[in-house]
Design brief:
The chain has four helices and 20 strands. Strand 19 and strand 20 form a beta hairpin. It is mostly beta strands. Strands 12-13-14-15-16-17-19-20 form an eight-stranded antiparallel β-barrel. A seven-stranded mixed sheet has the order 4-3-7-8-2-1-11. A two-stranded antiparallel ribbon has the order 5-6.
């Protein structure tokens, strides 16, 4: 009983913390920021003279479906003309968020930050104030994408950020952004390599950079990690808490592929002569999975399956499980940023004899 209470406490605490985190986004954040946890790719390209452009998006289709950025830049310069008096302070660092709505209406947020202290540069005896931090302009919008089947999928988000020495230099970028966006698109199918600082670049274009090949964010690439999770599940009419520990190997190219091996002790309870007794049964589980990380070809995404697990009973106590029991788990559905998963299960022995369905809730750490 103590184990059951402990498992419920862990899940309750996790759900409560995630709910609190979700509530921290106010209406301003929802309007002028990318949706939380919604960025799959982040790529940076050099614009020259110390200026840079960054693309963030939540679907790789967007690399082939971005809007005309030169036209958006011209529209932005026109729309901020009434704010020119507010932009006169050359030494303040400015951030302007420019939201492009499907209706054609634009929303603008202007923030200015004064430097802590003063910086100066001397040149031939002349002293001049020095600005060290760039200004930032963020263009945010959504795109409705048409995939190869002809289906239109709305609601994909993007943010194009311009980091520029001074906002007054923006007109000098006119006519250049679409060319840069085209180079970002070509980088999708290029070979990438990392430099001595572990920053990745397409082999053919060192002006583009990212923290991982193709701009994939953390959690991609090739790596080996340890896994720990707590479960609540049923087997027939029994309530079965358990946990699992193991190693997971991940390889990333067009698909993110993983294979893991886990030890999972399960705890079953039975009343024997008025005394509650605990029985531990252990499964050894192999999990394989894959998911698409970007478009393949022009408009296709390849996904054969998500995660599939196969477990075998290696330690049997009590008469709950048959000897030689197997368990298959199908692709789980996750909530709360992947921390909580729901997975359908099927227990059987020999060659699919006495198949018993089940369901478990997983709390991932």
């Amino acid at each position: 009983m103590k184990r059951i209470v402990f498992c419920w406490m862990l899940i309750s605490i996790s759900v409560h913390l995630h709910a609190q985190h979700a509530k921290t986004r106010n209406n301003t954040d929802k309007t002028f920021e990318m949706p939380a946890g919604n960025v799959q790719a982040r790529l940076l390209i050099d614009l020259g003279n110390g200026n840079k452009m960054q693309l963030e998006c939540n679907n790789y289709y967007l690399l082939d479906n971005m809007p005309d950025m030169d036209s958006i830049l011209q529209l932005f310069i026109h729309d901020i003309e009434p704010l020119k008096d507010s932009l006169k302070d050359e030494l303040s660092t400015k951030r302007i968020d420019y939201v492009i709505e499907p209706s054609g209406r634009m929303k603008i947020r202007l923030q200015q930050f004064s430097p802590k202290g003063s910086s100066f540069v001397t040149d031939k005896g002349e002293l001049a104030a020095l600005k060290l931090e760039p200004d930032t302009i963020n263009f945010l919008g959504t795109r409705a994408l048409k995939v190869k089947t002809g289906m239109v999928k709305p609601g994909y988000n993007y943010r194009v950020s311009i980091y520029i020495n001074r906002i007054s230099e923006l007109p000098g970028l006119a006519g250049k952004l679409d060319d840069k966006m085209e180079r970002l698109k070509k980088s999708e199918n290029a070979k990438w390599r990392s430099d001595k600082n572990e920053v990745w670049h397409p082999k053919s274009d060192p002006s583009i950079s990212a923290n991982a090949p193709d701009g994939h964010l953390a959690g991609t690439g090739d790596y080996l990690n340890s896994i720990f999770s707590v479960h609540l599940q049923n087997y027939k009419n029994y309530f079965v808490p358990s946990f699992s520990m193991g190693l997971n190997a991940v390889a990333t190219n067009v698909l993110k592929c993983s294979i893991g091996l886990y030890w999972e002790p399960q705890f079953l309870f039975q009343n024997n002569a008025g005394k509650l007794q605990t029985y531990r049964n252990d499964f050894l589980t192999l999990v394989v999975g894959q998911r698409a990380l970007k478009s393949i070809g022009s408009n296709q995404t390849l996904t054969i399956f998500g995660n599939i697990s196969v477990g075998y009973l290696i330690r049997r106590k009590g008469e709950f499980y048959d000897k030689g029991t197997f368990r298959i788990g199908l692709d789980s559905r996750t909530i709360l940023g992947g921390k909580v998963g729901i997975e359908p299960l099927f227990y059987f022995h020999d060659i699919f004899k006495n198949v018993t369905p089940g369901l478990r809730i997983k709390l991932n750490f």
